[in-house]
Design brief:
single chain; 717 residues; alpha/beta; elongated; NAD(P)-bd_dom_sf; SDR_fam
């Protein structure tokens, strides 16, 4: 070690952890002991020492509470000693259960437990002891307290934190021997300092698979390895989530070595869910509180800006609701069926990435959790929600309004054809009259009903003979503040669904169906909330009077349908091109659309079924799951097969007239844009009276898709 070392910057002044609760594992020695001491000096209110040896833990506690420095800085601190043996799953689960029963809030979770066995030893679980203690139990300790961490972040507006720390070095367990501290310096000040990197300190992001399950207010910190200079890099084990509440496994075949030498690893930066990075917790918290859009919402392409310029003096058409639109002669019906063109899941990554064909979220399974290790052919796991009543926190944080535009702002429909290239590469769109989002159809239907809940704009483009109707929102996502007026729909959906195995990093499942709409051959894109596996017309209910558990017969039937399948993807990997904006990964199993379900949270006197049916009709969604609540206290969950309701809705005279008018309106929009000079336009509907939809030409021609995809999916004229 050099005689002279660079000065370590102290922690920011003013850190006050009053009213905060923290857990530190392996808190009787090394890094865990030092971090515990420093947390107490920073006035943490409650500190839980998770230790293997209770007697040693009590000795450490006595030393803390009797020490002059801590007694002066934090005399009212509550220090608790709890048993935790990370070599045993039962001990780990018992520890989390006990800590939850004692404390309903958790702000800091510091995971420091680790060993360095050279000999091949097995833990009581049957796993290699090093893997059990250093990885598997720590992942379990990350997942089990997540609901408490998330609830704390939402309700108190405080950034909750999970930090993994570990040290490597044979027979060198003393912190002072590996990271000598000057008088007054602390280990928290050293974790990202260049001096530690010079000694072989390697930093790597841990818990990759858990990132997709975290709220934006819950962060996983860096895994810090203090190792010998002879070991300049750290082995990262990719952890694959198996069950949200019971177990995890390490995928050794995906293990990779960190190729960067320790000296080249950059300092730790805190990252928001929008992928912006900040140098301090205060800056990150201010960013989360800020109501303005992030830089990602403001990204605009010069070509895109120019194409969206409207020449208002050059009007292409104008339509007045209830007067100038004559309905088409043919009936609009869903009886003609549909064709699934493609499906995909967005993946939480900075680079736009999708899983194709992907899988919608699964409603919670009634099967034992260990069955999720199988690839299930046929029906997804069945519905088994949590016992009622169920308390859900108000929605908060950033949520997508139009995820496709957010991920690929220049060509929001590009992802559809990237997915088609994997699932349906020979399909041609020459016979498709309209490519549209479900949201745009709902706006146009409301207009044909003579109503406009909010002003809207849609962008119109012609690709050969196909009209592409592009959704246009003021912002592709918005911030929800977390008050009771924010609603509970997003958090309710999270509570009653689970991501498919191996796909915990997904952020929405989208599908494209082709069906007839009043003589128009339409391709409609929309999002699917979840799958409902039971093919029955009977509604299932759950209330306070029962848990809604399935019968033994249902369970036997489900178990009988289980099959094990080779996990190789069914679809060929799409060859990427230099111009592709979206990375395609072949993953998932195509789920029949007959199992698609929409999830809604409603108040007892909330929205009627009739107001929900247009959305479900355009998506041909057969199941509706409704959770009834009062201020987030859910007392009833109802699942309905709504096929009969959808047929009744489309045949009602007022709805049939509006549907036929909408088909005529779309046909006229197609003709207007097709006859324009630039083959593109903009339709705008303002909340004025009389209600009018005005169509204008755009300043210059712009294609809604990359040229290579147009050449692939349309024949040359």
């Amino acid at each position: 070690m050099p005689l002279f070392q660079p000065k370590v910057e102290p922690l920011p002044s003013g850190i006050d952890l009053s009213s905060k609760t923290a857990i530190v594992t392996s808190a009787t020695s090394g890094i865990g002991l030092e971090i515990s001491r420093q947390l107490l000096t920073l006035k943490v209110s409650t500190l839980i020492l998770a230790v293997r040896n209770i007697e040693t833990g009590e000795e450490v506690k006595s030393a803390f509470v009797s020490g002059l420095a801590i007694n002066t800085a934090n005399p009212d601190a509550v220090v608790q000693v709890m048993k935790l043996d990370t070599g045993d799953y039962a001990s780990t689960q018992a520890f989390v259960g006990t800590s939850k029963s004692r404390h309903n809030r958790l702000h800091l979770l510091i995971l420091d437990a680790g060993i360095g066995k050279i000999s091949h030893e097995l833990a009581p679980t049957g796993h290699v002891k090093n893997m059990q203690v250093n990885y598997l139990s720590n992942v379990l300790l990350t997942l089990l307290p997540l609901p408490t961490l998330e609830a704390t972040a939402r309700e108190q507006g405080w950034l909750t934190l999970i930090m993994w720390t570990a040290s490597r070095g044979l027979k060198r367990t003393s912190l002072a021997g590996k990271a000598p501290l000057r008088l007054g310096e602390g280990v928290l000040e050293h974790l990202t300092h260049p001096r530690r990197r010079g000694q072989g300190c390697a930093c790597a992001v841990a818990g990759e698979e858990t990132h997709g399950r975290l709220l934006e207010d819950v962060k996983v910190g860096d895994l810090v390895g203090l190792c010998n200079p002879a070991a300049p890099a750290l082995i990262i084990i990719h952890l694959v989530h198996v069950s949200p509440a019971s177990s995890c496994r390490a995928s050794m075949n995906k293990a990779k070595q960190l190729v960067k030498p320790a000296a080249s690893v950059s300092p730790l930066r805190m990252e928001c869910g929008c992928f912006r990075k900040f140098k301090s917790v205060e800056a990150l918290q201010q960013h989360i509180r800020d109501s303005r859009d992030t830089v990602h919402d403001l990204i605009r392409d010069k070509e895109l800006d120019a194409a969206k310029g409207v020449i208002k003096s050059k009007s292409l058409a104008g339509f007045k609701a209830n007067s100038q639109i004559q309905p088409v002669d043919v009936a609009v019906s869903s009886e003609g069926g549909y064709e699934l063109l493609c499906s995909y899941n967005w993946v939480i990554k900075p680079q736009p990435t999708v899983y194709v064909p992907g899988i919608p979220n699964l409603t919670y399974s009634l099967l034992p959790w260990n069955f999720t290790k199988l690839t299930i052919v046929g029906e997804p796991p069945q519905w088994s929600p949590k016992p009622l009543p169920l308390r859900i926190a108000p929605d908060s944080g950033f949520h997508f309004i139009d995820q496709n535009s957010f991920r690929v702002p220049k060509h929001p429909f590009e992802v559809v054809f990237q997915a088609m290239g994997t699932m349906n590469p020979t399909k041609k769109f020459d016979g498709i009259d309209v490519l549209v989002n479900r949201n745009s159809l709902r706006h146009l239907l409301d207009f044909c009903h003579g109503r406009c809940g909010e002003s809207f704009r849609i962008n119109l483009y012609m690709v050969q003979n196909t009209l592409v109707i592009e959704r246009c929102e003021k912002s592709a996502r918005h911030m929800i503040r977390g008050s009771h007026r924010s609603g509970f729909g997003h958090n309710f959906e999270k509570a009653v669904t689970v991501a498919p195995t191996g796909m915990s990093d997904i952020a929405g499942h989208h599908r494209v169906l082709r069906y007839d709409l009043g003589g128009l051959n339409c391709a409609v894109r929309f999002e699917v909330d979840a799958t409902w596996p039971l093919a029955t017309d009977e509604s299932r209910h759950q209330s306070d009077e029962g848990t809604g558990a399935a019968s033994i017969g249902d369970l036997t039937k489900s178990l009988g349908g289980l099959k094990v399948e080779d996990p190789k993807p069914r679809y060929a990997k799409q060859k990427s091109t230099k111009t592709a904006s979206v990375q395609v990964i072949a993953r998932g199993t195509l789920t029949p659309h007959s199992q698609a379900a929409e999830i809604k949270s409603v108040r007892p006197n909330g929205a009627a079924l009739g107001k929900m049916l247009p959305q479900l009709w355009f998506g041909r969604t057969p199941y509706l799951i409704r959770g009834y609540h009062v201020d987030g206290n859910f007392s009833q969950i109802k699942v309905d097969s709504i096929d009969k309701d959808l047929r009744g809705w489309e045949t009602r005279e007022s709805n049939q007239t509006a549907l036929r008018k909408m088909a005529a309106l779309i046909g006229q929009l197609r003709d207007a844009v097709k006859g324009s000079e630039t083959k593109s336009g903009v339709a705008v509907c303002m909340r004025d009276r009389p209600l009018t939809l005005k169509v204008f030409a755009t300043a210059q021609s712009k294609t809604p898709l990359p040229r290579a995809l147009i050449e692939q999916f349309w024949e040359k004229p």
